[in-house]
Amino acid sequence: MMMEMEVMHSTQQDMDLIDILWNQDIDLGARREVFDINHRQKEHELLKQRKLEEEKRLHLMREQEKALLAQLQLDEETGEYIPRPPPSTPLQLGVTPLEVTQNGDFTQEAGDSMSFDECLQLLAETFPVEHTQTPSVCLDTPAVSVPASSNMMMSPEQPALSTATISSGQPTPSQGMSPDLEEAWMELLSLPELQQCLNMQMEDTLQTTTYPLPTSAEAQTPSYPNYPTVQTPIFNPLTSINNVTTNNLNVSPAELMNTFDGSLPTVAPSDAFRQMKVDAPQLDTSFSGEGFGGVFYPITEQDECSSRHGQEENERMCDSPSKAAFTHMDLYSLSPVDSMDRSKPNLTAEHLDSDSGVSTNGSPNARSPGISVYESGSFSYSDSEMEEMDQNPGSAESDYSEMFSLNFEPDHFMASDPASEVTGQPQQQEKKPKQRKLDIAEERGLDDAPFTKDKPKKRSVRLTRDEQRAKALAIPFTVDMIINLPVDDFNELMSKHQLNEAQLALVRDIRRRGKNKVAAQNCRKRKMENIVGLEGELDSLKEERDRLLNEKSKNTKSLKEMKQQLNSLYLEVFSMLRDEKGNCYSSSDYSLQQSTDGNVFLVPRIKKTFKSEKKHLSHL
DNA sequence: GAATCATGTCATGTT
DNA sequence: TCAACATGACATGAT
């Protein structure tokens, strides 16, 4: 591309240089037209014109699709669009002739068929196959054949929309797909019938061991005459699946071509073409690998697990306790050297951070946070841990260290991805950072420790030490399973697998530590809850104390007032008392006292004192 | 570099 | 008796 840009402004001298380069690179299959400015200008104009036509077609298709959707109604239960029954005529479900469907749930009428065919046409017209085929076929993104639904059933006389029409030739968004086209893709993918077909094909893919691969020319549908013939290597997912299980996945495009050549028409039975194959578009970084992975590439778990590419997803798939949990891990991925080598920039670094997921909060999805040591290029184990291993030669960790040395196969690992090394695989390298970001974001989303105080997690990528150990010892199940399985299931799992002493010790330690980790987290959570509860209780007690103090002060004040009132009343009453001569009683000699029945008596103080002394003397 | 916090781990007791 | 759980204490890494 760079070269092409330069050629656009080249001088004659440059053209001479190009001649030299052309002569040198002629074996690579480059054509002279590539370097011809006039030719490229014409090509550019043709592309513009074609693009305009495509936009017009797209607009027409949208209008037709809207008109079609107007005839449909959304089934609120299934979320599918079903034909709107004619208001005048009742439903004729029992009378209507059965349409040829592969899925009973997928009922279609003529409108659907028209729409879907039109959609296919839109697909075909939107992404015409180019003659210029990138030699680097995306090996790690196997396309999945799309089944033919009832109206998509393709007879041999009616060749299906070929794998080439969609998969190989169409530009990916990063290769210049306009937003309109991308939007059109999204609309197409959102069609229920298309998804239905995709799902059906996925089932067929799971059930069928081998499909004969139609040739590109055969796959051309006559319904779309605008399609140029594709003569480029097409990645067949089915073939790749077979290769994955038996051979090295990282085959060169030439090998792929050979593979296709060997599996083509002579072997293909005629009825095999009833299964129309619509390979998904060539995967690219932003278009298919992530967003449409579940739609276009429903690869079997086995296939995913055995694929080195997309290992992150593979491990997650394999880690699911329900199904693939007993699948042995890739020994290369289990090697600690694996981690070391993965730090190299041109290797499959996106597979580094595969985390089987240790439950950290009781929920199995939570991960143990940790910083990625891969990013720093260092080994997975911390220095302290390595020191610990060195200092405890008899410990289990020392055994793990011994196992590390056994798994040290750097050359093997380096050779695990020859295609990327040879070709450079620019699109894969472009994909890695995005993949990593997605993984980090995903793991952050899953990271929901119970004790976080809403602080954002930055340590989320690294494998936990136990996970690293488990990988190092090739434990054939996930740390998550080891920790969270019930004891019976765990014992059963142990009995099913022949583990050596080191593996058994590690598994037990992982289970103990994992459970204790969760217990510690729960303990701290409870402790925090207790603290919070005590704080609340303390606040309420403080409020209660304040209230009582306030009440006490009020009562004291009230009592004081009452005493004052009583005293003034006493003095008033006492001052009003007179003896026979009309003299006032002395307050020092007399006092007023109230009896229990409420009567008030004037008691002489001296007399009282005298009486009390007299009583005292009589007792003596 | 010390202080603080979050988390993992171990030892030990309890259920 | 054993597994699971609870918890104090300590270590470690991050901030």
Automatic annotation (TrEMBL):
Q: Which InterPro entries match?
A: bZIP, bZIP_Maf, bZIP_sf, NFE2-like, TF_DNA-bd_sf
Please provide the record's keywords in A-Z order.
Answer: Activator, Coiled coil, DNA-binding, Nucleus, Transcription, Transcription regulation
Extent of Polar residues compositional bias: 356-366
Q: Where is this region: Disordered?
A: 336-399, 411-465
The record's SUPFAM superfamilies line, in alphabetical order, gives:
A DNA-binding domain in eukaryotic transcription factors, Leucine zipper domain
Q: Which residues form the BZIP domain?
A: 506-569
State the coiled-coil residue ranges.
524-565
Entry keyword Transferase: no
UniProt name for this protein: BZIP domain-containing protein
